[in-house]
Amino acid sequence: MSVPVTVLSGELGAGKTTLLSGLLESADCDVAVLVNDVGAVNVDADLVEVRTDLATGEEVVALENGCICCSLGGELSRAVIQLWKEHEFDHLVVEASGVGEPEPIARQFVRGPAGGPYDLSAVVTVVDARRFHDRFADADSGDAPAVQGPDDSGTRPLADLVLAQVEFCDLLVVNKCDLVSDAERDRVAAVLETLQPRAEVVTTEHGVVDPAEILGVERFDLEAVTDAAGWKRAIETDERGDDHAHGEAGHDHCADDNEDHEHDHAHPPERYGIAVDTYHRRRPLHPERFAAFLADLPDGLVRAKGLCWIAGRDKQAITMSYAGSETTLEVTGRWIASFPADRQETYRRGQPDLPWDEEWGDRETRLALIGRNVDLDALEARLDECLLTDAELDDDWLEYENVAPTGMGETTVISIEP
Ligand SMILES: Nc1nc2c(ncn2[C@@H]2O[C@H](COP(=O)(O)OP(=O)(O)OP(=O)(O)O)[C@@H](O)[C@H]2O)c(=O)[nH]1
């Protein structure tokens, strides 16, 4: 019989080790633990997926083979298989490094060789209630969000990773609740439920939880968890209702009315002031105005993520990801419309549902915006001001000053200016 596995993720100091010590003390079964300290691993599997959407056929395989999670996989799989051969235990817990994402680890237990002896039951993410509140849920204090430095690899803001950990899990443990008021704790829970509507939320102090709540959870489903992130749901709901007039934004005030998705939670209560919107335009963004916009985002914006079409980057599909106080722009694919006609046709045959514009093909900006106590309509109006004007459409777009990356996988980080 395969051994159940729980992957424990969460940022540095959130309380993973504290939670784990408690679990080991109180669990009534033999638990083996593997600590994964591959600090440099920094893969955004969402982005791999975006590439998959954009580049059909052989490119996908090449990209996935080339990605770091596979080298992590070899090492991790070897370690857990060896553990399984040499020891007897009832449950394995893998503690992910605080600067890594749980997804590549989880994939090893689903698709990798470790999927034989093991069966992934859940990904659990531990959140530091105090820090999460101050960074993401504190829109009415008027304080500027804490400035987050880049992570170890120097490319990706820490806050972005924190949200990626939240967005890819089955169970969220909100720890350090002794450091927040009840109202603050409820706000944190509401924001978390918006960011990851599929996950259970458990609140705790000093990692004290019933082991059954952690080890007994059996709900891992790669497809479901990959699609569950609030921003992704918002974009997908928008795509399905893609008969909006040209340039009109979808207003999916929390994608919760989307009945196709499994949905275990009540709507994030209106009283928390949380809203989700998608912004969709088929007109390029002016690189200078867009960069200025990203340097001046409002406090209440919790998360923004999606694809951007930036003038002067004719080929590059650029993923923008905002969390904390920084936005990462990364080239994650190539617009199909930038290929010669015959290849465009091949790619489009592979994706019959891909929305296609007569003039611009698949080039578009489609962003999910998640905010708290923030006027998303006003934010969208500001984004509209970043679009090229009719007159600018005739400019030479390469003349614009442009900080957006150019090569596949390259990133630029734009911080909010104090
Ligand atoms: N006040 C308070 N402190 C806590 C709580 N849980 C853990 N801590 C403290 O927070 C610090 C970090 O906890 P750890 O369990 O080491 O966190 P971690 O996520 O394992 O950290 P890394 O191993 O660095 O990734 C320790 O000093 C804990 O004693 C809590 O609920 N409240």
Automatic annotation (TrEMBL):
CobW C-terminal domain mapped to chain residues: 274-387
Annotated Gene3D superfamilies: CobW-like, C-terminal domain, P-loop containing nucleotide triphosphate hydrolases
SUPFAM superfamilies tied to this protein: Hypothetical protein YjiA, C-terminal domain, P-loop containing nucleoside triphosphate hydrolases
Domain of life: Archaea
Keyword Isomerase: no
Region annotation Disordered: where it falls in the sequence: 240-269
SMART domains to which the protein is assigned, alphabetical: CobW_C
Record's keyword terms, sorted: Chaperone, Hydrolase, Nucleotide-binding
Pfam family, one: cobW
Record has DNA-binding as a keyword: no
Catalytic activity entry: GTP + H2O = GDP + phosphate + H(+)
Molecular-function GO terms, alphabetical: hydrolase activity; nucleotide binding
Family membership noted in the UniProt record: Belongs to the SIMIBI class G3E GTPase family. ZNG1 subfamily.
PANTHER family reported for this sequence: COBW DOMAIN-CONTAINING PROTEIN DDB_G0274527, ZINC-REGULATED GTPASE METALLOPROTEIN ACTIVATOR 1
Protein name from the UniProt record: Cobalamin synthesis protein P47K
Source organism per UniProt: Natrialba hulunbeirensis JCM 10989
